[in-house]
Amino acid sequence: MQYNYFITGTDTEVGKTYVTCLLLKKFSQSGLRCAALKPVASGALLHDGQLRNDDALQLQAMSNVTLPYEDINPYCFAPAIAPHLAAAQAGVSIDMDHITHIAARAGTQVDVLLVEGVGGWQVPLGEGFNVSDLARALGYPVILVVGMRLGCINHALLSAEAICAGGLELAGWVANPMSEGMTAFDDNIVTLQSRLAAPCLGVLQRIDGAAREANVTKLTLP
Q1: Cα separation, 26 vs 112, whole angstroms
Q2: Would you call 38 a catalytic residue per the annotation?
Q3: 192 contacts 156 by C-beta, under 8 angstroms
Q4: How far is CA 216 from its chain centroid?
Q5: What is the pLDDT of residues 39-64, one digit of tens each?
Q6: Collapsing DSSP states into helix, strand and coil, what is residue 132?
Q7: Which of 36, 102, 166, 196 has minimal CB crowding within 10 Å?
Q8: Distance set, CA 104 to CA 60, 108, 113, 136, 207 (Å)
């Protein structure tokens, strides 16, 4: 059976790549062949003369099926700015059909394919289309990473509403703390659990360094 999921977040820098890596590890522990794509990434450095994005490299390293970097991250831009602006500066048009073709091909090689978006749900990718349009073109159930900080309830509810309004399934959400000691953290979790019509797949702990992988035990697979 094939499992495909699109990973989005309530904002940029809320831990989408971190959660995607944890999900890859969790699926791998279940004996499934898995890989992840980050089709669009802005913020990259040269590695052996080629632009490489650190998030995409992390996904490649955590996948147990090896895919070419060019498939994992077909649109890679150097400046860490909004992707539609980075693409315009590079003179590149992001082609959703190209991305869906890559995803379909990758899906034939794995049991689980995770596709990580860029920024939040409505980040522009080009003239007239956003991350949400890419997710709809793929048609995968969506996992929402909620960056736990002040304002997260509003961001999570708006994101969930937009996901469902677009005809996609919200398969679950993951709470990722943005800092130590968020005020009323547990109360915020309870509110999200009562307001989001999707299961909580995990409430992560704030862990730094190599020990961060221990959060895999906090996750439930969708």
Answers
A1: 11
A2: yes
A3: yes
A4: 16
A5: 999 999 999 899 999 999 999 999 99
A6: helix
A7: 166
A8: 17, 7, 10, 14, 35
| DSSP conformation class of 163 | H
In the set 16, 25, 26, 38, the catalytic residue is: 38
DSSP 8-class letter at 119: E
- In the structure encoding, which two tokens stand for residue 65, read together? 């099926």
d(CA 9, CA 117): 8
Q: Which long-range contacts (CB under 8 A, 24 or more apart) does 87-96 make?
A: 87/125, 87/126, 93/126, 94/40, 94/125, 94/126, 96/125, 96/129, 96/133, 96/134, 96/137
Q: What are the tokens at 170?
A: 């919200």
Give the C-alpha separation, 86 to 66, whole Å: 28
Q: Answer yes or no: are the C-beta atoms of 219 and 202 closer than 8 Å.
A: yes
pLDDT in tens, 76-92: 999 999 999 999 999 99
List, in order, residues 6 or more apart from 180 with CB less than 8 Å away: 206
Interval 169-184: pLDDT, tens? 999 999 999 988 899 9
Q: Which domains, and CATH codes, for the chain?
A: 3-218 (3.40.50.300)
